[in-house]
Design a protein that fits this description.
The complex is a heterodimer of chains A (about 200) and B (about 500). Chain A is mostly helical and about 200 residues long. Chain A has seven helices and no strands. In chain B, strands 1-2 form a two-stranded antiparallel ribbon. In chain B, strand 1 and strand 2 form a beta hairpin. The longest helix of chain B has about 35 residues. Classes of the chains: A mainly alpha (about 200), B mainly alpha (about 500). Chains A and B meet through helix 1, helix 2, helix 4, helix 5 and helix 6 of A and helix 5, helix 8, helix 9, helix 12 and helix 17 of B.
Chain lengths: ~200, ~500
Amino acid sequence: MSDRPASKAATDTTRGRNIDRVVFDLVLVAFLAVFVVTALDLRTGSRLVPLLVGTPALAAMLIRTVLDITGRVADHRAPDHVPETAEDEGVASASFVDLARAAQREVAADEEVPDEDDASRRRLQFTLWAFGFVLVAMLGTYFLPPVLGLHTYFLPAAAVALPLILGLGRVGWIRSIAISGTVIAAMYYLLITFLNVRL
Amino acid sequence: MIDGISAAFTDLMTWPSPLYLALGVVLGLVVGIMPGLGGGGAMALLIPFTFAMDPSHGIAFLMAVGASSGIGGQVTSILISVPGDPPNAATTLDGYAMTKRGRAAEALGAATFSSVIGATIGMLLMLAVLPFARDLVLAFSYPEFFMLALTGLVLISRLTGPSVHKGLIAAGVGLLVAFIGLDPVNGNPRFTFGTLYLWDGVDIVPPLIGLFAGAEMLALYSLGAGRAMATAPPGANRSSVLDGLRATIRHWRVVVTSSFIGFAAGLVPGISGTLASFLSYGQAARSSKHPERFGKGTPEGVIAPETANDADKGGALLPTLAFGIPGGVIMAVLLSGLLLHGVPAGPNLLRGDLHIVYVLVVAAFLPRLAAAGIVLLLGLKAGVLTRVRGDILAPVIAVITLLSVYALRNEPMDVLLALAFSYVGYGMVKFGFSRLTFIIALVLGGLFEQSYHQTMATFGPGGFFTRPFALTLFTLAILTLIGPALLRLVRRRPATRDAEERIHE
């Protein structure tokens, strides 16, 4: 009985993950379709290679999307990391093929991302923060007069954005401001003084 | 060759190059030990900072970061069983077991000494093979380069990521992004969607930084403060780093064998370092007098993978320099750095002055030596860097990353592009599309399309299949794609026949 909420949560997570996967698939389909359709309007010499690459890629992506929508493919995420001791999987006495597979698994396992609710909330927080920081910096740069002798609003936006996210992450406001101040000062020195970047 | 190496050494000892190398070593060690940003991501992030340097000094600086990050990755593998990068994974097997038995310092000593020796042997092997590669590459024409790019992409699609299907899609998307800009046939803008920004094509650095640094920061932040608080088990300092040096000398056969395995594996694109370390670990276990000790904390189990995964850089550098085909993230960043500094890779590099090649060889050795010295001096204290909180590190590095992308060309749109690619990279990781395949396709897109058109114009369609090297490469690509399925079919058939016979009986 007590397993039911846990299993429901697991099902919800899997369903959410599948929806995310299909959305990502559709974004890729749209991207490839735009390139293929645009290529059709180009001159023969210009469109040949893009069509040779884009058409099979689009077809493959459509197949992948259909498989993901119908749930025909198992989750292809990497299996577990290499165990703590070689004894568990017999790495020490494994064949060439097994060792190559272990290496391949390890590369894929490095590509794991966390999937819990808290992690999703934090991802959303980071996304909003990052896009907010860049948008404020770009809008300021294009539409506002320069401030403090700077050419862009990237440093002022960073001076506001960095303590904000550190503070939200329960780092403590004084520590957040100290860390942010150090980073901004270092970037000012490195980029403006040392590299003459028009920042 | 000796003259070339001594000229490169003199160049790298000319002020301010030692300062850049020292900085590269410290930065490489820090990113190697700290969670999140790997060596490749850090190198990509630092490319804009190399613009103020001489090309040879800038490339050496990048190489120093990449080389030292590998040594930093050993520390976490040995002390807390968390590999800094996938190639360090095999080291955790015996390295952490040694730590648990109070022999962490010996494991660190063995790992650092063996990686310095491995890197040196790998680079010497590369220099020994380079003249042959030069002859080969000078015999190559457009069809061979087209097939080389095609085969490289197919191999990487097969070897990285969980699905070859998704790998090929990632390669297709990467190639299409590479086709943005003025087309090489008519010189007309293509896929620019009415924006002037895209006329010059998509610069490699913003996607590289977004995919490998931005996406990692997003993942690191989502882990919160809980990650990277691990500590080495108590009693982890009952040995000395000199014991590690003694063990490395005692097992010199393992060092030599692993160096050769590492160099050969380095030629395989995609998983070279990881493949090298696992293969050499297996080989060391098979040839050991005490194979039963592997996995329980034997120095040979640390020496073999660490020698191999540093010797592989020599092997990986060969296709990058000789053919302009990078096999991994570090080599892709290095190639981008070379191109941004106006140093051509491939035949043009090998036909001309080889100074930059010798600079890379010296830069692969000197920083590793310095990094090894620092790790040995710090010893177990180096592990303290693993305790930096992810939720502090991620936003700080994100700001540095975005500002450094802007610094590349003073172009705000580059920042937006890098940010967008951070999320694309995150999605690719989450849903199993290989980022490495995508970025290498982006690097190879120009070569792929130009060599296709040049082949058609010079040799006609037959050029792809009538020249021996081109045909061999094409066969390799086809075998890479359908070989595993054929093998499965061949293996299954006798089993099915047996089962049928049993049913008849």
